[in-house]
Amino acid sequence: MLGLDSWLRTTARTEPATLPPGQKGRLVVEVTVPDGCHIEAREPGEPFLIPTALEFESVDGVTIGPVEYPPGDVERFDWSPVVLRVYRGTFELRAPIEVSVGAARGRRRVVGRVRYQGCTQTLCYPPAVQEVTASLGVVASRL
Amino acid sequence: MAGQATSTLVGSYGIGERPEDFELPTPSGGWVRLADLRGRPLLIFFTTTWCPYCGAEAPYLEQEIWQRYRDRGLQVISIQVKEGPKLARGFAEHYGWSFPVLVDEDGEVSARFAPVKEGLAPEVAIINAHFVLDAEGSVVYRDFLNMERFDAKAAHVRAFLDEFLEVT
After folding, report:
1. Chain A: nearest CA to B38, how far in angstroms?
2. Domain A9-137 falls in which CATH fold?
3. A93 has which bridge partners?
4. B52, A117 contact by CB (below 8 A)
5. What CATH number should be reported for the domain whose range is B2-13+50-167?
6. In this predicted model, what pLDDT tens digit does every residue of B29-64 receive, in sequence order?
7. What is the value of ipTM here, to two decimals?
8. What is the SS3 assignment for B31?
9. Which of A42, A95, B61, B95 has a C-alpha 20 to 30 A away from that of B162?
């Protein structure tokens, strides 16, 4: 069935790609909404609309979050008395990461899920979830 | 009239057809059976809590439809498509709905009313649809969400009801 699952283009990365124990970086998820479409922002403006949300699975030796969301575009639709906020085009969700002091070296797979609800120019689709993954290398500390 | 304009859609119940009987729960645990509502005209509004258009229309459904036509014999029910009772109750309370809300958690009843559109799930195709049944339970009006001509105050539904309830 047609849905939003195949809509969003997402990429995820850590900056930097490798971190030694005790160091901080950030995780960036880049989301692209197709032209002419939108998804609800983190604070969409109405209580029952589905806010975009990014959550991560726990990763051994790595602390992630909290996620920082852009405010989104202010949107006044002629059919709604309420000012809504939406995401269009390409935007980034970011989260600080920190490798714990005692973390073992090696590669970590960071798995996240973007929950969202969006509309095309003609239809609105049910809430959907898209998985994103990034890779983080935990390396030896520099002396 | 929008109901006539959409009557060529495949699937769903067309003008003059009598929908199959169904029984659905309310958020508080009661049950409502379609057949029990015969005898007076009935408006059915299909909605979800997450649909922005449904939320925009919700206050007007109470004020401009239910409060306006109840004394002229109209019954109104809303069917929450693939939603649970907790969300359905919260939505109704938030928008001050005083007419019955039914919960179609698996979407099976809603799917019977949905037009068939290739590649489109019934629970999407039926969102924000209005059906008016006459006292015998036959469809006399229907429309489906058209975002290009969407009117939160449902002027097209009111135009139909003004005419229909006056002559019945």
Report:
1. 32
2. Immunoglobulin-like (2.60.40)
3. A29
4. no
5. 3.40.30.10
6. 999 999 999 999 999 999 999 999 999 999 999 999
7. 0.81
8. strand
9. B95
